[in-house]
What we know:
Elements: E1 14-15, E2 20-23, H1 33-40, H2 46-55, E3 59-60, E4 63-64, E5 76-79, E6 83-84, E7 100-103, E8 107-112, H3 128-135, E9 143-144, E10 153-159, H4 162-173, E11 178-186, E12 195-197, E13 199-204, E14 210-215, E15 226-234, E16 238-245, H5 252-259, H6 273-281, E17 295-303, E18 310-314, H7 319-328
Amino acid sequence: MPTGTAAASSCVQTVAPAVARLVVDEGSDGQRLDNFLIKLLKGVPKTHIYRVIRSGEVRVNKGRAQADTRLALGDEVRVPPVRVADRSGEQPAPPREFPVVFEDDHLLVIDKPAGVAVHGGSGVSFGVIEQLRQARPMAKFLELIHRLDKETSGLLMIAKRRSALLALQEQFRQRETGKTYAALVLGAWPASKKVIDTSLHKFLTAEGERRVRAVDESNEDGRRCITLVKVVTAYANYSLLDVTIKTGRTHQIRVHLLSEGHAIAGDEKYGDEAVNQALTKGTAVSGIKFKRMFLHARRLRFEHPATAGVIELQAPLPPECQQLLAALK
């Protein structure tokens, strides 16, 4: 397997000394060729990976292949010599297990704590998936089926087989899964406001930070997003909501709720800075110090990828969220 270093690293890049011929195992069965190479050749720009595929330097079973070619168990993939990232000096992710809500031979569903990224990248060295792989070295396949923001807690699905990954991701694309979140927002949410159908546009700030904003439906950069909202409990200055997403866009819930004038409590990216500081210091709600965003993926409903049976899972609110609500009462 090729080894080397990333261009942005202080180490020197190296070139793989020879062509690599790899046999597709169970963990890569059914994977697209481009995704197989992106995972294999960490540190190689995607543009270069697509270039070598188009040039015919990458071969599957000695024949030319396309980026979207699906690999099968036992296929031989020829990988040409390329510069790749030398990660020998990096510290591996610490092994860590997370509270298991459901597990069988096909998938794993955990209750992710707030403050933990689901994967490494964008300044994060490692996340849930890297820690799980370290904790389960015998696992042949572990891949995220969907994602949660770092600040969001709750139900997170991980595939243990590629067939489960593909089947469940298709369910998400077809909106055949039920994903409900608990969100505490500032102010009194109007009970009559049950549907938010507002387009969202993802952009980068001048500092290079990823952000999302609500835009008019006529905006060509916007993507239509639908969120369903139900008031669970109304408090003096807050509202506890059940939020179900019909589309899965980056920061969808956070920006949709904000677009209606109700930011999520503790949201450092889109929330009310003064209120967030008061929550953190314990001056906002009866001496309770609340130091996270109140957004929790509490319910998942999906069709099992192997049995076709309907699975419904729930994760209770974390203790710090329960304590805040108790104080609000």
